[in-house]
Design goal:
The complex is a heterodimer of chains A (362) and B (862). Chain A is of the alpha/beta class. Chain A is built from nine helices and 16 strands. The chains are: A alpha/beta (362), B alpha+beta (862).
Chain lengths: 362, 862
């Protein structure tokens, strides 16, 4: 069995998730911290000693001591592993950076801060070539220095970098992207990249593993680490690590579609509901009855899931041809409904839906 | 269903004891019971309600309150007609043992008793409780809140009106929805002002707090960044300050500088001695120079004094001579001035004589002119008086004269017309009244005349009536009198006289103006001038003309002033020369004394040069010694400057060293402080706080947006519902509004009553202006309540549901005029509805008319 290591990135520890309810917010933060243990477990299972974290270990440049030190303690506890941490754009190195704070306190022996752009030996014949961020805007392709970094003859070279790659990346407007063929140019056996939050191949032997714990609604294959095996560097193994599933769905409704049936494929999942965060974007045209049914579905989902982002702004309610209100037994209700339907503006539609709710509630 | 009372009888009800009280013969129209306070009118009303709606076995508060003061159970009998059938309800209240009987009248047949009777009564009444149904609607109790309809009233009204509009029957759903809307909206905004409250206010506050928190977090983060930047800057400086190479280089430089100072300090000790030598030699040199200069100066001064004495003597002689010349000159000038002044006096006298003669000639001419003018004025005055005499005769009324002349001519013409004219054409011998007629001399006969021709005598009579002759005479006389009054014979003369008088008026004005012009100051003034002969001056008139004398005097005066000035100058000059001469003589004496003293001091003249040479040699000797000493001192002082520079360098280097040490210390202190501050900052995590706050703000803002959208929807829906309900209400209430309209007009003039959503009167519209009921007076509100009940009574009556309207002490606030109008309204309603008015205002209700109810004792057997 040749040399193998885990490649991860974009932990963004300390992300607050303050827009969520306090309980969920705390759970999401805890999950990010706990993923270190999960990654350690994955490494052990894969018999990998080295874990390469390709930037953005922390979400902020000046995290609190608690956010800074608790992950270090967790990594230190996994003393059978060696953690290689690279400063990224969220947590750049430099004077008075968090990396200096860590250095001042003294890092555990198994935690290595790759803050210098110089080759460092991982093993006797395998060298790590880091491209640490030292500022928020380095203004150049930091991996260019890999080309001229000297390593012993015959030694294998692994690049560790953070940022967008030419023609692909999280920031298409980035002025100084990493050269897509950097692995070839610098003679790298593998280029471990960070920044893109989903798993993605970025070039020959160049991969983004994505964040091991998703933090936003984006269908980009996030929530895993890569196991890189010597000799198979262009075919790393993706190993899921996420606790929470962030899912983004679009739901096009039709008049003939039963809301329960329409939502069922989304609602049904092997993932535990209390660890699912769903964003559902609704579109199409529904009757008031369907809307009432959708509301029930929404209430049901909202109660079951960790979080539901229900977006029905694009949903058109076919109120004008709905008889339940227009021909309501109470003439005042019926006349009001007819007038609101005839008005047609958004506010009138909202008022009509409200009327429907209130009438339905009786 | 129609319902009315025919009689009410009470016994053992409150103050109505065993004798009881009965109101018999209540009519279907307007009935009035006017009794003083405490009579028990309200008791009658309460008793009627209890009899109709409470079981005889009831023991509730109202029934208990009806018990007689004698403690006996109340007995109530009501005779009423329902749908044309007469009935009697007899009720004796007693807890658990009360009795109710219903009879048919007039047969007296018992129809039902107890519970059956009570049910039947309620059926006939169409209601099951006091406030329900049409019958329950029309009580207007004493002191009740008249505008406040009970819920049961509203239901009754709504039910009564519902049939008007086919789709008006609401299930109550709209009301429930509206209430739910209002309730939820109350969670967002206040009903009155729409200001955010509760949930919305909380959300707004959350956003505001989150924004504040974000600003604070931004500030904290900026503070942290500042700390970091500053720390980095200071650490850079500290590295520079503590660079080992720099420190060693600096120490070597300081050692070298200190060595140089020690060497120079040794050589500085010789400087003091040389400075003392120089000082001493400077004193000696100064003394030698002073002795030499003093002696030389004295010699020069002696020479100057001798020269001064010589020049002073010459000057004195010159001054003496000048004094003599100047004094003589002054004397000559004084003589010239005296001559000029004499000539001036002579010329002035001649000029005054010339003036006197000239004035005399002017007065003379004026005198002659005055005499001529006086003659003219006197002539004009004569003419003026003549004209005044003419104008004094007064104006002449020519029109009157002409009128009178015309009258005389007309009268004469008329008379002539009536008088025959006799003219002898041929022959002779014809006489008229004895006067022979001549050919071509016609004679007009006035009155009667006898025409004789031979033997023929003919009477000739004028046909003129007598008054025509009188008119003619009168006119002639009057004209003659007028002409005589004017002193003329004919009208033409009178006209000429009038012309004369007008001309006299014109002349009079012209003469007055001419006299005024010739004697503007009056005649007496002119006479004074004309009569006073001017006196001739004494002496002879000067031979030369006055202008020549004046020119000569002017010329002389021109000469006089310069002559005076020259004399004054000469005198001043004499004084100045004299003063100067005295001073010169005194100075000369002083100078001579000084010269003699100085000559004595300097000794014999032949030894003076030798002494001066000796003093000069001494000075040269001292200068040489001083020059040598100063050269030595200059050298030593040059070295001293090097020492000072070396000491300054050492001082600078030592200060630099001290500063560097201080800087290092200060940098370390500040770095330490910043590190401490940053440690605190890091403990708090400003980045996390900031990001968390921003996310929180986003979340609360999103929540606020949702609430605002919800509020907008609530308001939109409420507005739509209110709108529909308002329109519906207007349709629904139209019958009531129509029924009340004539009554409102009757009581309030041209007005309209608006009803609110709760079916109660809400606004009174007068002259296009709406007034909320709460702003109206208590009287107006009471009247509106009464009018509303009257309107309802009319409405019910129009639907065959006439029920009695009982007013208990109502209309107490109304003024006389309004009361009259309310009475008229009551009569209008009483045409279809039984109205029973209970009042204690006997006099006020006299004007109401209607049927007067007289209380009687409870009949022995009704």
């Amino acid at each position: 069995m040749g040399f193998r290591f885990l490649h991860t990135a974009d932990w963004q520890l300390g992300k607050p998730f303050a827009g969520f309810e306090p309980d969920l917010s705390a759970s999401l933060r805890d999950a990010r911290l706990a993923m270190i243990d999960r990654i350690a477990g994955v490494a052990r299972d894969a018999a990998a000693v080295h874990v390469l974290v390709a930037g953005d270990v922390w979400d902020q440049a000046m995290p609190s001591d608690r956010v800074l030190l608790q992950p270090i303690d967790r990594m230190a506890a996994a003393e059978d592993l060696i953690w290689w941490l690279l400063p990224g754009n969220h947590d750049p190195a430099g004077p008075e950076s968090l990396w200096q704070r860590l250095a001042a306190r003294g890092l555990p022996v198994n935690v290595r801060a790759a803050v210098d752009a110089a080759p460092v030996a991982m093993t006797e014949d395998i060298y790590l070539l880091p491209a640490p961020w030292t500022s928020k805007r380095p203004g150049r392709d930091l991996t260019a220095s890999f080309d001229t970094m000297e390593t012993p003859a015959g030694a294998k070279r692994i690049g560790l970098a953070h940022g967008g790659v030419q023609g692909f990346g999280s920031d298409p407007d980035a002025s100084f992207p990493i050269a897509a063929d950097r692995a070839d140019l610098a003679g790298l056996t593998y280029l471990a990249l960070g920044d893109w939050h989903g798993t993605k191949r970025a070039g020959p032997r160049a991969w983004y593993p994505g964040t091991p714990e998703p933090d936003r609604f984006r269908n980009n294959d996030a929530g895993a680490v890569l196991l890189v095996q010597e000799g198979h560097e262009d075919e790393p193994q993706r190993i899921p690590t996420q606790t929470f599933a962030w899912e983004m769905h679009s739901l096009a409704m039709e008049r003939t579609l039963d809301p329960n049936d329409a939502v069922a494929p989304i609602a049904t999942s092997d993932w535990p509901a209390h660890q699912r965060l769903l964003q559902i974007e609704l579109s199409g045209r529904v009757s008031l009855e369907q809307r009432r049914a959708l509301d029930l579905v929404r209430q049901d989902l909202s109660a079951r899931l960790a979080h539901l982002d229900w977006r029905d702004d694009g949903l058109e309610i076919a109120v004008a041809d709905d008889q339940s209100l227009n021909e309501h037994a109470d003439p005042v209700i019926a006349e009001t409904a007819r007038r609101l339907a005839a008005a047609g503006d958004a506010e009138s539609q909202a008022a009509l839906l409200l009327l429907d709710d209130l009438v339905s509630a009786s | 269903m129609t319902f009315r009372f025919d009689a009410v009888r009470l016994r053992h009800v409150r103050g109505f004891g065993g004798t009881g009280m009965a109101l018999e013969g209540i009519t279907p129209g307007l009935n009035v019971l006017s009794q003083p306070n405490e009579f028990g009118k309200s008791t009658i009303l309460a008793a009627i309600k209890a009899a109709l709606f409470f079981k005889a076995t009831a023991d509730n508060k109202i029934v208990k309150s009806l018990y007689g003061f004698d403690g006996d159970p109340p007995e109530i009998e009501l005779d009423f007609t329902a749908d044309g059938e007469a009935h009697r309800l007899s009720k004796r209240f007693r807890k658990g043992r009360g009795e109710t009987k219903l009879f048919e009248l007039p047969s007296g047949t018992e129809l039902a008793r107890e519970a059956d009777a009570e049910r039947e009564v309620l059926r006939l009444l169409g209601a099951d409780k006091p406030d329900a149904g049409a019958g329950g609607l029309l009580w207007v109790e004493q002191g009740a809140a008249l505008t406040d309809l009970q819920a049961a009233h509203k239901t009754t009204i709504a039910e009564a009106l519902a049939s008007e509009v086919s789709d008006a029957v609401s299930s109550g759903e709209a009301l429930r929805v509206n209430q739910a809307l209002a309730a939820e909206l109350a969670e967002f905004e206040t009903a009155k002002t729409g200001k955010p409250t509760k949930r919305l206010l909380a959300a707004l506050t959350d956003v505001e707090n989150a924004e504040t928190a974000l600003k604070e977090a931004d500030a904290k983060l900026a503070e942290a960044v500042t700390y970091r930047s500053r720390l980095i800057e200071l650490e850079g400086k500290l590295v520079q300050r503590t660079d080992t190479d720099d420190v060693e280089r600096f120490q070597a430089e300081l050692g070298e500088a200190r060595g140089a100072v020690l060497e120079l300090q040794k050589r500085a000790q010789a400087l003091g001695h040389t400075e003392q030598d120089v000082a001493r030699l400077e004193v000696s040199k100064a003394q030698a120079v002073a002795a030499h200069d003093r002696f030389g100066g004295d010699l020069k001064r002696l020479k100057n004094l001798n020269e001064t004495i010589g020049m002073a003597a010459e000057n004195e002689a010159e001054l003496s001579s000048e004094l003599g010349h100047t004094t003589a000159r002054a004397s000559d000038l004084a003589g010239e001035l005296a001559d000029l002044e004499e000539r001036q006096r002579s010329l002035a006298a001649s000029l005054r004589q010339a003036d006197a003669f000239e004035r005399y000639a002017r007065n003379r001419a004026e005198h002659e002119l005055a005499k001529t003018t006086l003659a003219d004025v006197r002539r004009l005055a004569g003419e003026k008086r003549a004209a005044e005499a003419v104008t004094a005769r007064g104006p002449i009324n020519l029109n009157e004269l002409r009128d009178q002349e015309r009258e005389a001519i007309i009268a004469e013409a008329a008379l002539d017309a009536a008088s025959p004219e006799i003219e002898l054409l041929t022959g002779d011998g014809v006489t008229l009244d004895g006067e022979p007629l001549a050919p071509e001399t016609p004679i007009r006969v006035r009155g009667e005349a006898a025409l004789t021709a031979g033997d023929v005598r003919i009477a000739v009579r004028s046909t003129a009536p007598l008054d025509l002759a009188e008119r003619h005479d009168k006119a002639r006389r009057k004209l003659a009198a007028l002409l005589e009054g004017l002193g003329v014979a004919t009208v033409d003369e009178a006209q000429a006289e009038a012309g004369l008088r007008q001309q006299a008026e014109v002349d009079l004005k012209r003469l007055a103006d001419e006299i005024k012009r010739l004697a503007p100051k009056g005649l007496s003034d002119l006479e004074t001038i004309a009569e006073a002969e001017p006196a001739a001056p004494e002496g002879e008139a000067p031979a030369e003309p006055r202008e020549a004398l004046e020119q000569a005097l002017t010329d002389l005066e021109t000469e006089l002033e310069p002559a005076k000035a020259r004399l004054n100058d000469a005198k001043a000059r004499v004084q100045a020369i004299d003063k100067k001469l005295v001073a010169r003589r005194a100075e000369l004496e002083i100078t001579k004394t000084e010269r003699d003293r100085l000559a004595a001091e300097l000794g014999p003249e032949e030894a003076q040069n030798e002494t001066l040479h000796g003093l000069a040699a001494k000075v040269s000797e001292q200068v040489a010694l001083l020059t040598a000493a100063e050269a030595a001192l200059g050298r030593l002082r040059g070295e001293q400057k090097d020492l000072e520079a070396a000491e300054r360098r050492v001082k600078r280097l030592e200060e630099a060293e001290a500063n560097r040490a201080k800087d290092v210390t200060a940098l370390k202190v500040e770095i330490g402080q910043l590190e401490g501050q940053l440690m605190q900052v890091y403990q708090q995590g400003p980045d996390e706080t900031r990001d968390a706050t921003a996310e929180r703000l986003e979340a609360v803002q999103a929540r606020l947006d949702r609430l605002e959208a919800r509020r907008a929807a609530l308001k939109r829906l409420k507005a739509a519902l209110d709108n529909v309900q308002s329109e519906r209400r207007d349709r629904l209430l139209k019958p009531l509004v129509d029924a009340a309209a004539p009554l409102v007009d009757q009581v309030f003039g041209a007005s309209a009553l608006r009803f609110g959503s709760d079916l109660t009167p809400e606004k009174l519209e007068r002259s296009g202006r709406e007034q909320a009921l709460e702003v109206l007076s208590a009287g107006a509100r009471e009247q509106i309540a009464i009018v509303t009940r009257l309107g309802l009574a009319r409405l019910f009556a129009s639907r065959g549901q006439a029920v009695p309207l009982i007013l208990d002490d109502a209309m107490i606030y109304a003024d006389d005029a309004r009361t009259d109008r309310l009475f008229d309204a009551l009569h209008m309603v009483a045409e279809d509805t039984q109205v029973i008015v209970l009042t204690c205002h006997d006099r006020k209700f006299d004007a109401l008319g209607g049927h007067r109810l007289r209380p009687q004792p409870f009949p022995a057997s009704a």
